[in-house]
């Protein structure tokens, strides 16, 4: 389809040319349903990228909940209302003990900023550890942790970036326990540096499946050691579940459950409202109570009845349509298919991931593991009606993250189109 040049020019004039757009030739999307998106010409695209509509675009149960509550009442949560309490109850019970209290906000950025404030208040320290290829939001505070946009480091003296743990390009060629220890040792080094500088460590904020980093296979034992070093120095572990949460990984509801370490604070966002702006924080009760006692925090839109009705509806669909199991089964099916393609195409260096969140690492040389940019494939897939993304330090990992109702038939189409594209390179 030819790009609507007039619409594009209006966008540039009003939003600026720097406002990001997917694909070299942007897609003019006007409608969504399930795992499909439709452009202005009526062409449909298989959505293999968007985890925001986690239960499918415009799911009727979610749309009905939004409509029903918005025509009844929508007001801030400084009035008593059953829905905010019921939603907090339902949300916290899905988490592991001792995460038992919640904030409901609007964006993942807000959620992560509250988590940082809470950790710094609880510990009396400022230092935060993240990875060297991280993204946790776009407020000033969390942008300091956005190392993927700052050359792998943070511009703030209060943030230290450590190498993300991976098995594909391991430190010094190590493996197993030695590799886990080497990566965890980088966390220990950051903790020690904070102490020496008089800043101290307030916490470590990471995505528990390292989604922005390219979904690396984490050496077993890393999380226990890394979090152990942080906690031994009085810091907290904050798990950013904005991408990993809500059954995305298949085996568990939350990404941190696969890592084997329960955080002190967990943040959530994108998929909570299936497109409606809902985000949240769950944490230990002592942390929340202390924060509430000392900070007058409120959020005009966070926890309003419409948000909570929508959030409840999303949980309904995940449970009623058995989407967690679907993520596991279809995710394994996709990975098996991708490994089949790997045997045919040298370009595919590695296939990895969790449930319906899969990374395909592209390389020009399997021995050297030289990164091959994913941009050409992403654009070619779009031209053939399949929307995917790219991630990783080198922008060479295909990002497969479809809505959770994604079926094996959808997977077959994805694999067939990818096969066609790879065959032309």
Summarize the structure.
This protein is α/β, with parallel strands linked by helices. The chain has 13 helices and 16 strands.
Structural summary, described in words:
The chain is α/β, with parallel strands linked by helices and 425 residues long. The protein is built from 13 helices and 16 strands. It has a 7-stranded mixed beta sheet, with helices on both faces. Strands 11, 12, 13, 15 and 16 form a 5-stranded antiparallel beta sheet that branches. A 4-stranded mixed beta sheet has the order 1-2-3-14. Strand 2 and strand 3 (44-47) form a beta hairpin. Helix 2 runs antiparallel to helix 10. The two termini are 22 Å apart.
Give the topology:
Layout: H1 5-15, E1 29-33, E2 36-39, E3 44-47, H2 60-70, H3 82-93, E4 99-105, H4 108-123, E5 127-131, H5 140-143, E6 159-162, H6 176-196, E7 201-206, H7 222-232, E8 236-240, H8 255-259, E9 265-268, E10 279-284, H9 285-294, H10 305-320, H11 323-344, E11 348-354, E12 357-365, E13 370-371, H12 375-383, E14 386-387, E15 389-391, E16 397-400, H13 408-423
Parallel strand pairs: 3-14, 5-6, 5-7, 7-8, 8-9
Antiparallel strand pairs: 1-2, 2-3, 4-10, 9-10, 11-12, 12-13, 12-16, 15-16
Helix pairs in contact: 2-10, 3-10, 4-9, 6-7, 11-13
Task: From the alpha carbons, calculate the radius of gyration and give it in angstroms.
Answer: 21 Å
Number of β-strand runs: 16
Q: What number is the mean pLDDT?
A: 97
Strands of the widest sheet, in order across it, are: 4-10-9-8-7-5-6
Stretches where pLDDT falls below 50 for ≥5 residues? none
Helix content: 25-40%
């Amino acid at each position: 389809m030819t790009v609507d040049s007039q619409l594009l020019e209006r966008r540039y004039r009003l939003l600026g040319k720097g406002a990001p757009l997917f694909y070299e030739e942007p897609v003019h999307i006007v409608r969504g349903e399930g795992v499909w998106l439709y452009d202005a010409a009526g062409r449909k695209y298989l959505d293999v990228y968007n985890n925001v509509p986690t239960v499918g675009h415009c799911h009727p149960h979610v749309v009905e909940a939004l409509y029903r509550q918005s025509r009844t009442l929508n007001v801030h949560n400084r009035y008593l209302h059953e829905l905010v309490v019921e939603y907090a109850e339902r949300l916290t019970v899905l988490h592991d003990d001792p995460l038992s209290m919640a904030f409901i906000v609007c964006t993942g950025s807000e959620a992560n900023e509250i988590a940082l404030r809470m950790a710094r208040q609880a510990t009396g320290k400022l230092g935060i550890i993240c990875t060297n290829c991280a993204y946790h939001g776009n407020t000033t505070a969390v942008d300091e942790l956005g190392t993927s946009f700052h050359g792998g480091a943070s511009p703030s003296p209060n943030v230290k970036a450590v190498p993300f743990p991976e098995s594909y390009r391991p430190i010094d060629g190590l493996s197993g326990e030695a590799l886990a220890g080497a990566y965890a040792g980088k966390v220990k080094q950051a903790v020690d540096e904070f102490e020496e500088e008089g800043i101290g460590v307030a916490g470590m904020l990471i995505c528990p499946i390292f989604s922005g980093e390219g979904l690396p296979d984490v050496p077993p034992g890393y999380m226990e050691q890394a979090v152990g070093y942080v906690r031994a120095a009085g810091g907290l572990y904050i798990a950013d579940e904005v991408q990993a949460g809500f059954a995305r990984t298949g085996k568990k509801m939350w990404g941190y459950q696969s890592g084997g370490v329960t955080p002190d604070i967990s943040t959530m966002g994108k998929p909570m409202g299936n497109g409606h702006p809902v985000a949240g924080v769950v944490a230990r009760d002592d942390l929340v109570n202390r924060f509430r006692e000392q900070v007058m925090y409120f959020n005009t839109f966070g926890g309003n009845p419409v948000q909570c009705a929508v959030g409840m509806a999303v949980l309904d669909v995940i449970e009623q349509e058995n989407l967690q199991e679907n993520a596991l089964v279809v995710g394994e099916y996709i990975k098996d298919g991708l490994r089949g393609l790997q045997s045919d195409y040298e370009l595919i260096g590695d296939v990895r991931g969790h449930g319906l969140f899969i990374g395909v690492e592209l390389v020009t040389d399997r021995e050297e593991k030289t990164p091959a940019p994913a941009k050409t494939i992403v654009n070619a897939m779009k031209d053939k009606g399949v929307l995917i993304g790219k991630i990783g330090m080198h922008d060479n990992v295909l990002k497969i993250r479809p809505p959770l109702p994604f079926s094996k038939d959808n997977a077959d189409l994805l694999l067939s189109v990818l096969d066609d594209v790879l065959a032309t390179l």
